[in-house]
Amino acid sequence: MTRLTIRGADTAQAMDEVLRVLGPDALILSTRQHRGLVEIEAASADEADLTPAPRPEPSFAATLLSQLAARRGGAGRAEGLPPHLPRRVVLVGPPGSGRSLLAARLAAASLRLADAPRPRLIAPRPDSLTPPGVLSRHARLMGLVPDRPVWRPGQLPTLPAPAPDEVQIIDLSDLDADAQQPDALAPLAELPGTALWLVIPTGLHPDWHDRLSATWAGRAAMIVLTRADLCPPTADDMALPEQSGLPLGLIAAGTGLLDALSPAMTASAPAPEPEPAAIAAQDEPPARPRPDDMPAPAPDQEDCDVAPRLF
Question: N or C end of the chain: which has fewer CB within 10 A?
Answer without folding.
Answer: N
